[in-house]
Amino acid sequence: MPRTALTRDEVLDAAADLVKQHGPDALTMRKLAAELGTAVTSIYWHVGNRESLLDALVERTVQEMGAIRPRGRTPADRIVSVARRLRRELRARPHLIAMVHERGLTERMFLPAQRALVHEVHAAGLRGARAADAVRAVQFQIVGFVLIERNRERAPVQSPGEQELWGGHTAGDPAEEDVALARALARPADPEKLFALSVEALVKSLLADRG
Amino acid sequence: MPRTALTRDEVLDAAADLVKQHGPDALTMRKLAAELGTAVTSIYWHVGNRESLLDALVERTVQEMGAIRPRGRTPADRIVSVARRLRRELRARPHLIAMVHERGLTERMFLPAQRALVHEVHAAGLRGARAADAVRAVQFQIVGFVLIERNRERAPVQSPGEQELWGGHTAGDPAEEDVALARALARPADPEKLFALSVEALVKSLLADRG
DNA sequence: ACCTGAACACCGTTCAAGT
DNA sequence: ACCTGAACACCGTTCAAGT
Fold first, then answer.
1. Does any domain span residue B106?
2. Where does A8-66 have alpha helices with state H?
């Protein structure tokens, strides 16, 4: 006996749950069917196939990302605030970052943010191709950083890691004379701080470099 | 009748070929066995299972990356040269970037480059934690950029893309008054140029910001 | 229009058995 | 020490058949 009518949205919701909890690999057509209490093949009627189901999931959350409101007084501050907000949003959806990335939709997801960046860069006095370059440089830096950061979190222990490399004595290295440097590299990086530092440095340089 | 003794290296070579040509998804234990002219199960004896086979492949190419020799007169130039070289090396192994990234080994792959960066940053006069931050900022920027760039290449056509967004009229946008900016954003980005520009801007800012 | 089970062609992996 | 085929438990997808 058939259950209450299955809808496309119901399928997407259940699929999103599976992905959020255990990652995209855990999203199996058969498991999904079991979760929904239907035959595997019913899902195909609603979403086509697994590939387009994942497409729909990604599409959905790209929409959810919404617009970004910059905060701060100077354009530089406001750009940094956009960067921070973007990083936070992305980090809240780790599996989806990966999926969006794998599907090559990172660009599209960043269009709202790009608009905000354009506004701020313009306000800072940059014009034309130089402004476009600045926007893209910042955009690439943010996305790239988050991608790496996610990667780091997933594989926290590596060997030989920075700890082993910079913890010991390495002859002929500048670190040999610079104990503080060696110690800093032996410590795990503080992503929050490194992110702010990087974005600020890049923005400062890009905005100053006009004329 | 069994063929000439199968070796672990033989298995790895054949596997690497499959991955290089058609990506990791194309690496199937059964296809690999067919390629080698053995039973599927023989492969298991030599490499354990598919997972550790991929591990071995990644490990192998991480080794192949080797050391980086900086070029140029000033530390800034030499850092930029390291960045360029790294980007080239990574772009030559697109499928492997993805695999290394997915396995969280990006860090380890970059340790030789990190050494070179430490040397240059030190030569530029940075010390201690500040030097460590600079090294990591540059390192993150390079890796992040290459990850995004690879992503762009794989999905060249997106809709709505930057073209559609910035090609038309968008009321209330700074781009409305700045035709050159809108036109620049409607054009596809030149990754080569954008990369050089970003790294130079970041390095300049990081090296200047001492004291 | 929506759902079903059977069937097909794939997977990775295990295992007892061979030499 | 190395290789084998059979078997198991999974996949995604198609299709003819139901209501």
1. yes
2. 8-22, 29-36, 40-47, 50-65
